[in-house]
Amino acid sequence: MSKGRGSGALAVVCLSGGLDSCVTLAEALTRHREVAALHLSYGQRTEERERRAFEEICDHYGITRRLRATQPALGAIGGSALTDPSLEVPDASAGSSAIPVTYVPFRNAQILALGCAWAEAIGAEAVYLGAVEEDSSGYPDCREDFFSAFQRVVDEGTRPETRIEIRTPLLHRTKGEIVRRGLELAAPLHLSWSCYSESEEACGVCESCRLRLKGFAEAGAVDPIPYRKSSG
Amino acid sequence: MSKGRGSGALAVVCLSGGLDSCVTLAEALTRHREVAALHLSYGQRTEERERRAFEEICDHYGITRRLRATQPALGAIGGSALTDPSLEVPDASAGSSAIPVTYVPFRNAQILALGCAWAEAIGAEAVYLGAVEEDSSGYPDCREDFFSAFQRVVDEGTRPETRIEIRTPLLHRTKGEIVRRGLELAAPLHLSWSCYSESEEACGVCESCRLRLKGFAEAGAVDPIPYRKSSG
User: What domains does chain A contain, in order, with CATH numbers?
Assistant: First the structure.
């Protein structure tokens, strides 16, 4: 557990290792004395790189309480280009209003379910998730209505004395605002990883890279992670 | 997938391998043409025995579409005598109105989250779970309010065109009614396993065994599985 500056007690932060979860962790540390970090691997293409980002961000903040969870079945059920090697991660430029093929069915429900179980077991008062509704990819489990509904599930499905609040501090922020807030909080953005397809140098062209680069551009800042020379 | 007698399309059944999930599967097969079965191992004491029951019940019905999921983190977070070897599974006779120590935090949320993700990926119209509210152990995630709340999460958190109904046909039945219904449907109760602590002969004294034996007694039937001689 890392000692944060906040006055709240223990919180669980779901930390994929991407830009948004990195800034979410920084936000949680302003409000909680202690933070425990959860990472979920589910067979995504870049899971080793994501896990490394998780560990390095935790090291940066001195977070010692870490839960490294695996749910290979979520990848095995397929249906997403993030986990199914037979589907290609598309360039963002393909552009469509439909839900993209990188959507992993109901992923945030898995992460929240595990985060809340852990929170109940260790007595945490909140579970943080770095979801972004606006300026995001249109995944159905990244919308406020989904999180409101999940809050009720937590209230109903845990012990009567358990009070766990789902918190998504970035939900209504743009990528530019997220980058600015990260810089303001001195979050270790150089340790975060967002690319859906590469692990050494970010591809710069997948939707996750595009959104990240857009955020840095809007914030008037330079993204400190390496990109392939041919990209962006 | 097994060909059921029902007229509905594909359904996912969460099948732990216990009495309740065995009868729930039998119910689902009366309503759906095809059934796919999901088992979740999470570090519970009797997980190998449960998995064997899952496989044998699937074999019995000719269900070929099986998802064997593991979520070891759920066991690792502890807090339950079902997964923590340092806690003893108590005799039911210990008796208390409190939530028992065998409660695994938010377990049904994990199972439903995975079941619904799978249902969305394979186009199933329903997810069945063998939860029993009345005549159960008082777990908070076995109550109707929990499942109603989870239904909203599914509606909000999946693709707009996805329609998945959570079904808990045993929720308001007594254990006696469940056994009678299982016998009526010729469910393979002899292949099911409910004991929380033993894998060869059921202990007969843990809360799960007690509820099971009570059900058979109420139904005027003899439980076909082996029990330790010293028990019951």
Answer: 2-218 (3.40.50.620)
